[in-house]
From TrEMBL:
A biological-process GO annotation: methylation
Keywords of the record: Methyltransferase, S-adenosyl-L-methionine, Transferase
Domain of life: Eukaryota
Domain O-methyltransferase C-terminal: from-to ranges: 243-387
Species whose genome carries this gene: Glarea lozoyensis (strain ATCC 20868 / MF5171)
Protein name: S-adenosyl-L-methionine-dependent methyltransferase
Taxonomic lineage: Eukaryota, Fungi, Dikarya, Ascomycota, Pezizomycotina
Matching InterPro entries: COMT-like, COMT_C, SAM-dependent_MTases_sf, WH-like_DNA-bd_sf, WH_DNA-bd_sf
A molecular function (GO) term: O-methyltransferase activity
Stretches assigned to coiled coil: none
Length: 419
């Protein structure tokens, strides 16, 4: 952990970097950040200003924790998601125009909920800067309620977290007690919260509405700049592979393959995913003939020869037992020198980042464990995983591109050509 800062050191840091951020907004004639609905929903900042913004957020987080003290810090609000879940479920943000105001009674009628429940929900939301109450009983939008009203993907993401992830999380500790150390996807918090013997993915994919929600939520997640495919394109040591074949294992509808083909004009991609996932996938005209889709279960042996096997956001869905099976099933298809590129979050080494920055990663660790005993990994976990599959894998490097949510874990097959 970094050397502790005093309260005034933290506030000086906040002042210094807030000043830089504010100066950027002023000199570029941008509206200053505010809660007013006219505020742009997203402003992309240059990297030095983004760094200042992160420093402010980290320092504020530390200062808040110090000011709260040990006991208040220990007990975070368990129900902070209730208002957001309810706003989304009942369509409250969309119930009146952004430029107008409303009342609890009007919202209640529009959204078919009781007035007293509306009051409770909206007033909790106001405590999180979602809506404002300019005079008693009169509700107006803020930038956050506008975002919920106007960005459907944000709503789908909230539905997914509230509908799938949170219920599973609430039973995670019970699952740890019931099935100590289990690596089985159907022995996790989700199985208890859902009252099922099946794994989350099986349950959700059987229900078109839930499957659609998870799909939209993932599209939202992956549309954020930190998931841009450019990090793969710019940092992977392509060498001859730029003129070879890339297999995208669990490549869904081929969005990543399309980006790869557009950036590397001589590469060919084979997208492997479950038949029901690839069905209806469309190859855009400009990359026609360079992307092939094949229905494939990655728990069966792979028979596609390639120069690079990409597993992007795939292994973190699985415990070591199953991740090892996925990797082991690639071995028969590997030629000497074939490379594997795993793109997943690589957990920061303990103490290497602030608690504020580490929290996103650590929260994800427990979310993934809760849904199906899935696993986020650090560098050592990845090394051990490959070693456990076959000692002929050479662990080359872990690339962590600045600004990317995902790292590239680069491995080469040093064995004979697989059979
Ligand atoms: C989180 S998504 C990642 C999609 C894509 N690689 C990306 O980066 O956007 C995980 C993918 O694994 C696929 N998948 C899950 N189980 C599979 C299986 N048994 N065989 C093949 N693909 C599978 C899913 O259909 C899904 O497309």
């Amino acid at each position: 952990m970094a050397t502790p800062k005093t309260l005034t050191e933290l506030s000086a840091l906040i002042h210094e970097h807030t000043t830089k951020v504010e100066a950027y907004y002023t000199t570029h004639n941008l509206p200053a950040p505010s809660f007013h609905p006219s505020t742009p929903l997203k402003t992309v900042l240059p990297s030095d200003i983004e760094t200042s913004r992160q420093i402010v957020l980290e320092a504020m987080d530390e200062l808040t924790a110090l000011m709260l003290g040990p006991v208040e810090c220990l007990i975070p609000p368990p129900n902070a998601w209730i208002c957001v879940t309810a706003l989304q479920r009942f369509g409250i943000a969309k119930s009146f125009p952004i430029t107008e105001s409303s009342t609890f009674g009007e919202i209640a009628q529009k959204c078919s909920i009781s007035e007293s429940d509306t009051r409770r929900i909206v007033r909790q939301a106001i405590a999180f800067y979602i809506f404002t109450e300019p005079s008693p009983g009169v509700i107006a939008h803020t930038a956050a309620s506008k975002a919920l009203a106007q960005l459907p993907a944000v709503g789908a993401f909230i539905d997914f977290i509230a509908g799938e992830m949170l219920p599973a999380s609430t039973r995670l500790v019970d699952a740890m007690q019931k099935w100590p150390g289990s690596e089985e996807p159907n022995e996790a918090g989700f199985a208890l919260s859902e009252g099922t013997d099946f794994a989350m993915m099986e349950v959700v994919t059987r229900d078109p509405k839930r499957a659609q929600c998870i799909g939209t939520a993932m599209t939202f997640l992956h549309s954020r700049p930190e998931y841009d495919v450019k990090y793969l394109l710019d940092t992977f040591p392509w060498d001859n592979a730029a003129r070879g074949v890339l297999v995208d294992v669990g490549g869904a509808k081929g969005d990543v393959a399309v980006d790869i083909c557009r950036a590397l004009p001589d590469v060919k991609c084979v997208v492997l995913d479950k038949p029901e996932v690839i069905s209806g996938a469309v190859v855009p005209d400009d990359v026609a003939g360079r992307i092939e889709f094949r229905g494939h279960d990655f728990f069966e042996k792979c028979d596609v020869r390639a120069d690079v096997y990409l597993l992007r956001h795939v292994l973190h869905d699985w415990s070591d037992k199953y991740a090892a099976k996925i990797l082991g099933n690639l071995v028969p298809s590997l030629r000497t020198g074939a490379r594997i590129c795993v793109m997943d979050m690589c957990l920061p080494a303990p103490g290497s980042v602030s608690p504020f920055r580490g929290r996103v990663a650590r929260n994800s660790v427990l979310y993934m464990k809760g849904i199906q005993n899935a696993k986020e990994r650090d560098e050592e976990d990845f090394r051990q995983l490959f070693e456990s599959v076959d000692s002929r894998f050479r662990f080359d490097e872990v690339i962590k591109p600045e600004g990317s949510a995902l790292a590239l874990i680069c491995v080469t097959w040093m064995g004979e050509n697989g059979v």
